[in-house]
Design goal:
Elements lengths: L1 H57 L8 H29 L2 E3 L6 E3 L21 H15 L1
Antiparallel strand pairs: 1-2
Helix pairs in contact: 1-2
The chain binds zinc ion.
């Protein structure tokens, strides 16, 4: 009786975790899709700017037109899109339980104290208060590595 009770509890817990994981993956996919759309939009604006600049070069009549002012709006659009992509990227990191090294922008796990890529020390703003435990673990890991 106890055994089956335990079993069903575990099963429902696993189910819950799986659903959470699935919705996380779905959310991740959605954000990635948005990011790609925004990146594609930036590409097309780049092309638009290039075209304007070239046409300005070809058409001598346009000599009075201030090309920088002409493309200013396009540049602002790119700025906005970049901001949105940045937000989406942060959202993705949070979903994956990761943080980014402020020095080299390498993606690292939330509980890492040093960046595995550049070795710089990480701010512990995301870390739980288990520094002591981690220190002990680090010492153990060092022994294992040898
Ligand atoms: Zn780094």
């Amino acid at each position: 009786m106890d055994f089956f009770d335990k079993l069903s509890k575990t099963a429902s817990k696993t189910y819950k975790m799986t659903t959470q994981k699935t919705s996380k993956i779905a959310k991740e996919a959605k954000i990635k899709m948005q990011m790609n759309e925004h990146k594609a939009k930036i590409q097309s604006i780049y092309e638009e700017i290039g075209k304007k600049v070239y046409e300005h070069h070809v058409n001598d009549d346009d000599i009075d037109i201030d090309i920088e002012a002409e493309v200013e709006e396009d540049c602002i659009q790119i700025d906005e899109l970049c901001d949105r992509i940045e937000e989406e990227r942060k959202e993705l990191l949070t979903l994956k339980d990761k943080k980014q090294c402020p020095n080299c922008f390498y993606e690292i796990d939330l509980d890492f104290h040093y960046c595995p890529n550049c070795g710089s020390e990480q701010e512990d703003r995301y870390c739980k208060d288990d520094n002591e435990k981690n220190n002990n673990e680090n010492t153990n890991n060092k022994e294992n590595e040898d």
